[in-house]
Amino acid sequence: MPRVLVVEDDAQLVRALKINLQARAFEVEEASDGGSALRLAAAHRPDAILLDLGLPDMDGVELIKAIRGWSLVPILVLSARHLSEDKVRALDAGADDYVTKPFSMDELLARLRAATRRQQPTAETAVPLVVTTDTFTIDLVAKKVRREAETVRLTPTEWHLLEILVSNPGHLVSQRALLREVWGPTHAENTNYLRVYMAQLRRKLEADPAHPRYLITEPGMGYRFEP
Ligand code: CA
Fold it and tell me: Which of 24, 76, 213, 214 is 20 to 30 A from 170 via CA?
């Protein structure tokens, strides 16, 4: 059953969307602000996101950029803003499609189906629940890391960073996306946090932390887990 994350602070609209989506065999999760939307998107990996641009805690465009740092999930924007520059901003940030409120439910569902069809399932979207390398093993469900039969203790921040990276194997995750996701939108420029925490993760996981094999830096851009 495809899972849709509905990010919208208008409770009435959420109810209407939920009824219509569930009637068409979508599983629905809801978030009424950007912060919880980010957490749910990262933790539950929905198959599509319906996103209102006017959220109480952040601009929806910022949320699109944050999600695009580490995910290719189809994002369909719902907005009361009619100006084409808003559409352009949302599409430039990585939204797949745009529906202006008020919209017909049939049109929305047709666009949602089209957006989810375009996303071909690939090996990368199906992240295994246990990631195994020659050096360490990460159980994403039990939240446990082992290295040579020893449990590796990670702080919640280290775990959060590692979880995002290994959930996107082989893909660059931007510094901005990591900072926003782990430390929040007000820390999007604190790249020194990333350097410190990535160094700690490498000390705990890499055979040769100075020459990492798995936790790779893309200078000036971000980090990548190389499986
Ligand atoms: Ca709103």
Answer: 76
pTM above 0.85, yes or no: no
Largest pairwise CA distance in the chain: 57
CATH of the domain at 144: 1.10.10.10
Provide the residue range defining the domain that includes 50.
Answer: 3-118
User: Which of 97, 118, 139 corresponds to the end of one domain?
Assistant: 118
Token digits for 131?
Answer: 């990631």
Q: How far is the CA of 8 from the centre of ligand 1 (A)?
A: 6
Residue 20 has pLDDT above 90, yes or no: yes
The protein residues having their C-beta less than 5 angstroms from ligand 1 (an ion) are 9, 52, 54
Number of folded domains in the chain? 2
Nearest to 179 by CA among 169, 193, 168, 167: 193
Please give the distance, rounded to the nearest whole angstrom, from the Cα atom of residue 167 to the centre of ligand 1. Answer: 30
